[in-house]
Design goal:
Elements lengths: L1 H5 L5 H11 L3 H20 L8 H15 L9 H31 L5 H22 L2 H11 L5 H8 L3 H7 L7 H9 L3 H11 L3 E3 L2 E3 L3 E5 L2 E2 L4 E2 L4 E4 L1 H19 L3 H17 L1 H12 L3 H26 L6 E3 L4 E7 L3 E4 L14 H8 L4 E4 L5 H18 L6 E4 L4 H8 L6 E5 L2 H13 L3 E5 L5 E4 L1 H20 L11 E5 L2 H16 L8 H16 L3 E4 L14 E6 H6 L12 E7 L2 H9 L4 E7 L7 H11 L3 E6 L39 E7 L21 E3 L2 E3 L4
Helix pairs in contact: 2-3, 3-4, 3-5, 4-5, 6-10, 8-9, 10-11, 13-15, 13-17, 14-15, 14-17, 15-16, 18-19, 20-21, 24-25
């Protein structure tokens, strides 16, 4: 903060020099004008359309600066003050010339007004740029003007303003929407053609440690879900050539990372977390614009600290090394441990722009902590948020000395190139979270090539509410269910989308209560038009399969993309006849209630539940449901990754004991978790065994001496931190 404040005032020596020039020191004034003349000429070149007029306008600008010298007070750099004087002078001179030309044309009746609209458009664009620039903080305005109007390079700006390279780059584009650079591009001498080119090439990909224009097959823009309007920034759809280059760079990085200590990897993750925290407000603003999720508490107070905490947990695991499960059999002289698997591709979901982001979330953290480089494929719903993360990850890698391609970023590929990417021989593994249809295509491609891929697909997350729970606390259970199902418009992978009840009077009252709660609750904003469409289609599938809509069932009702809070109902008998269609995942603020005739039928229903991430059983706290609980839990336990009692499943704690996984179709493999360190790291590792390998040739964690003195090792059937 101190450095920022001191930069707003010119040095005393410079102020004295300018004041002397403004109060009679003609030699000093001439020297000043000569010094700043190249800068003035460069600015003039971007303010006028006709190259033949540049020198005339530059002379006008120089005269204006000379005359204005007495008014300079040292508040801000002298060069900044000159820029303002020049801009005002040029605008004034252009207006005078346009007025004179217009009068001549009218009086002489010598032609049409075809050029007038062009002049007016140019003037309006410049006025718009000035208005937009005025909205920016002074520090960012200084960078934007220099980069987009004066066309100074990032290193030039960093040197002149005495700020870090990464800070300049982050300020070059207005993160709140990108309109300032667009307006400034319209301001330039190249006009609308340059504007179009600038917008199309504004967002660069990160390949081999370098931000560069993409060799794109096309482009896309994310929407603001709240307004349904596309956001200004354009993002490229990468060609296979770009994927190929990223893979080659990742292979080179993997070679270096194999020799890199866990301590160095931990240093990177800690540095990354710190850098991200320094830009928290910017991340929150971007994610809010791209997802519509509330800034507070959801983004700023819940998901953001979860994400940085996750990064630091990964750092601790990398340093400790116990996650590698070092195993030593001294009698057989065989030793083994988990080691990096190689380049990891990460495909992030739309619903967690921070915690599951492909360039900062759980899969990213696990892959990096395990010693692998990451190729992050941004989710199309929040590419800007992912870009911010990648900026800081790349900077952190340089800061601590990791390979240039430790983190790379592409925004989108064609479906064919995505399948080719995950099945490429150079890939070690892939982490994917998203829709079942897209995930299964990627999985098929990876499986065919023998490549590891960990996919999180779809989950209905059954909740069984036993009669005793309703007898004891009907209103409490109803409130918990409604809150869980409607939180974040239901856009959680652990949303309770399937509730199983047993027929009875309390069940009828429970259904009536939650219908009222759903009807009274505000309708949340969905993440995108695609979510609105898929939710609409899913509810239609459920109703076609025989479910009855109790409340909601139609799109709209909220701000932006939205769908009415929806509850559906089916009998147990009907579910058993059509269980596949009635388990269609309705991702969003919707849930299906199934009412069984008795406990036997309830257990039959549970037997037909597809694999899910979670399963919950609500029962009487005094033990009245204990016998029923034992039967239900026996049927439910093999079908879900995480079993909960008297608790809704929405929250997923970052705990070593957490399992965020489950049988298909919730994930592609029931033996692994996407959340919970150190277990999540083991997805991105290969088991390496060393048989009769000489001691000096062994990896550090398998040598006789426990070099970290903290790593837990399994030596001769005993976990210990002792050295041999």
């Amino acid at each position: 903060m101190l450095r920022t404040l001191t930069r707003r005032f010119e040095s005393r020596a410079r102020v004295r020099q300018v004041n002397a020039a403004g109060h009679g020191d003609q030699v000093g004034a001439a020297a000043l004008i000569d010094e700043i003349l190249p800068r003035m000429r460069k600015l003039v070149r971007h303010l006028v359309r006709n190259d033949s007029d540049i020198e005339d306008f530059t002379q006008e600008a120089a005269v204006a600066v000379w005359r204005s010298l007495p008014g300079y007070r040292g508040e801000g750099f002298f060069e900044h003050w000159v820029d303002k004087v020049v801009t005002r002078a040029i605008f004034g001179e252009r207006r005078r010339r346009r007025t004179a030309r217009s009068l001549v044309d009218v009086e002489g009746n010598r032609g049409s007004f075809e050029g007038l609209s062009v002049v007016q458009d140019e003037y309006l664009n410049r006025r718009r740029a000035i208005r937009l620039l005025a909205l920016l903080p002074i520090e960012q305005r200084q960078v934007v003007v220099r980069h987009h109007i004066l066309e100074m390079s990032v290193p030039e700006i960093a040197t002149e303003l005495a700020i870090p390279f990464e800070t300049v780059r982050s300020r070059c584009v207005w993160r709140a929407g990108g309109c300032v650079p667009w307006a400034c591009a319209r301001w330039s001498t190249r006009g609308q053609r340059r504007c179009k080119k600038a917008r199309m090439s504004a967002q660069q990909v990160l390949i081999a440690g370098r931000w560069r224009p993409s060799q794109a097959n096309g482009s896309f823009r994310a929407d603001n879900p709240t307004t349904k309007e596309p956001l200004p920034d354009e993002y490229p759809i990468s060609s296979w050539q770009e994927c190929d280059e990223a893979l080659n760079a990742a292979v080179a990085a993997a070679v270096v990372l194999r020799k890199t200590s866990g301590a160095k990897v931990g240093e990177f993750l800690d540095a990354f977390a710190a850098r991200v925290e320094a830009r928290k407000d910017e991340f929150v603003a971007m994610a809010h614009a791209e997802t519509g999720l509330p800034k507070a508490p959801r983004l700023a107070e819940v998901e953001f600290p979860r994400t940085t905490g996750q990064l630091r947990q990964g750092a601790a695991a990398a340093r400790d090394g116990s996650w590698t499960l070092p195993t030593i059999d001294t009698k057989a002289n065989i030793r083994s441990m988990l080691a990096p698997i190689g380049p990891v591709c990460v495909f992030g979901p739309n619903n967690f722009p921070f915690a599951f982001n492909s360039a900062a979330g759980g899969d990213f953290t696990a892959a990096i902590a395990a010693g692998n480089p990451v190729i992050a494929k941004a989710n199309s719903s929040h590419p800007g948020t992912t870009r911010l993360f990648a900026e800081e990850a790349e900077a952190a890698a340089r800061q601590v000395g990791l390979p240039a391609a430790t983190v790379q970023l592409i925004y989108r590929t064609s479906h064919a190139d995505g399948e080719r990417l995950v099945s490429d021989p150079r890939v070690g593994a892939t982490g994917y979270t998203g829709s079942r249809s897209a995930g299964l295509k990627l999985k098929a491609a990876a499986d065919a090539a023998g490549k590891a891929i960990y996919v999180e697909l779809s989950s209905v997350n059954p909740v069984v509410v036993l009669p005793g729970a309703l007898e004891e606390r009907l209103e409490e259970v109803a409130a918990e269910f409604a809150g869980s199902c409607l939180m974040g418009a239901g856009q959680f992978c652990t949303n309770p989308g399937f509730v199983i009840l047993q027929k009875g009077g309390k069940t009828d009252a429970f259904i009536k209560t939650i219908v009222e709660k759903f009807r009274a609750a505000p309708v949340g904003t969905l993440l995108s038009s695609a979510v609105e469409k898929t939710l609409t289609a899913a509810v239609a599938t459920l109703t076609k399969a025989g479910a009855e809509i109790l409340v909601g069932g139609t799109a709209g009702g909220g701000k932006g993309y939205s769908f009415a809070n929806t509850l559906l109902l089916a009998s147990g008998e009907h579910f058993l006849r059509n269980h596949a269609a009635l388990q269609t995942e309705a991702f969003g603020n919707s849930s299906l209630l199934v009412v069984a005739d008795d406990l036997g039928q309830l257990c039959q229903i549970v037997d037909h539940v597809e694999g899910s991430l979670t399963g919950c059983i609500y029962s009487h706290r005094g033990g009245a449901d204990d016998a029923a609980y034992e039967k239900v839990a026996f049927h439910l336990r093999p079908l879900v990754g995480r079993l909960l009692n008297d608790k809704m499943p929405t929250g997923v704690a970052v705990s070593p004991a957490m399992n965020h996984g489950g049988p298909y179709p919730s994930t592609g493999h029931p033996g692994f978790t996407a959340v919970g360190i150190p277990a999540s790291l083991r997805r991105f590792a290969m088991l390496q065994s060393f048989d009769a390998v000489r001691p000096a040739r062994l990896p550090a964690l398998l040598q006789d001496k426990n070099l970290t003195e903290k790593t837990w090792r399994f030596i001769d059937l005993e976990w210990t931190i002792r050295s041999l």
